[in-house]
Design brief:
Length: 373
């Protein structure tokens, strides 16, 4: 499958015009010329180029202000798509988004991870069937982002550390023959944070803590994801909160992950988070006690993040959406730990409650494409 990123040009003016149309949603040629200080013939030339590539179209006219009615210019939202694929130990989630980042189609299937050809072939077949079932033109798919609970090198091809799933540096090479589109691999928490940043329009800097089957995270500074010297920034799950405490899956003791992963909760409710929080709502003594201890440990992690980064903290992952109803409780526990503040209003619940990692992964491809228009 060919790369689509060079569909026409990487011209700066062309990109400025497209981004203005994208941001405004509907705009006229005259307004583009005025806002970018360009001549109408120059704007017309680039608009034709964008239209030829199927990126914009005309939709009716604006109300007249005394002269000829100006044509409405808007982006073609379904001009291209990006596919996000979140791989976990037991499931595979697929999400297709359009140019607006809107979810067009999604699917989640049970598929236990195995580091072998049978599994990789099943992933490829699942992608092909997903695209075919929804009648998506393959030439409009920008690429596939695979998100994993693993540390990924900056080349977006090499797994440098993985214990949650049994894989290694050969992952990209092994799965490659089964994926017919351009693809890259990303850390799942980083991808989820990117999706969260996309919808938190009011936040430019944030620490995102992912509370899933493992605890991860990401730090976004002034709109840019900071990944560290070794792509390990944001591994909040391996901060020590209880010296010589419970054993983490990494083999160390007292990590945040050992106290704040989703398993700590759903193990007390037949493997179901929804059942656990329903039990808490109904004041089940055991689940209420477990949840109280969970929030106490989570407060240690959140306060540490606030002390380090002094920014908003967003709680996501599998547990994140369930915490919306307990924001006041969480803030009341965290606030007394803070040396400098008497409230914890910087704690935010996640807005992206559905397949955040898969969506964020797809958004990486979409954002890169937008930079190249």
């Amino acid at each position: 499958m060919r790369e689509i990123f060079n569909i026409n040009s990487n011209n700066r003016i062309r990109n400025q015009i497209f981004r203005l149309i994208f941001d405004k949603k509907q705009i006229s040629k005259q307004e583009i010329a005025a806002q970018l200080n360009l001549s109408l013939p120059t704007v017309s030339q680039y608009l034709q180029s964008l239209k030829d590539d199927g990126l914009i179209d005309y939709s009716g006219t604006f109300e007249s202000t005394g002269g000829r009615k100006a044509k409405i210019i808007q982006c073609v939202e379904n001009a291209f798509f990006a596919l996000g694929l979140d791989i976990t130990r037991n499931h595979l989630s697929l999400v297709l988004i359009n140019m607006r980042g809107n979810i067009c189609f999604s699917n989640r299937i049970k598929l236990t991870f195995q580091n072998n050809a049978e599994y990789f072939s099943a992933v490829g077949v699942t992608i092909d069937r997903f695209i075919a079932d929804h009648q998506i033109d393959c030439n409009k798919v920008l690429g596939v982002s695979l998100t994993l609970p693993a540390i990924i090198a900056s080349d977006r091809k090499t797994v440098t550390y993985a214990t949650v799933i049994d894989t290694d540096a050969s992952f990209y090479r092994k799965i490659g023959p089964y994926i017919k589109f351009p693809f890259k691999i990303y850390n799942d928490a980083n991808a989820a944070a990117f999706a969260e940043y996309w919808v938190h329009n009011e936040i430019e800097t944030m620490a995102y803590i992912s509370l899933s089957n493992s605890v991860g995270g990401s730090f976004i500074l002034d709109g840019r994801q900071y990944t560290g010297y070794n792509e390990r920034a944001g591994e909040f799950g391996h901060m020590t909160i209880i010296p010589e405490g419970e054993t983490c899956y990494c083999g160390k003791k007292g990590c945040v992950d050992a106290y704040c992963c989703a398993k700590v909760l759903y193990d007390h409710a037949d493997g179901s988070l929804s059942n656990f929080f329903e039990a808490v709502k109904n004041k089940d003594p055991e689940c209420t006690k477990v949840f109280s201890e969970y929030l106490n440990h989570l407060s240690l992690a959140i306060n540490s993040l606030r002390m380090i980064f002094d920014c908003d903290i967003v709680m996501g992952g599998y547990v994140g959406p369930y915490l919306l109803d307990y924001m006041d409780d969480i803030k009341a526990i965290v606030a007394p730990r803070n040396t400098f503040e008497n409230n914890a209003d910087y704690i935010k619940p996640c807005k992206f409650t559905f397949e955040a990692s898969a969506v964020g992964g797809a958004m990486y491809y979409l954002t890169e494409f937008m930079h190249h228009i």
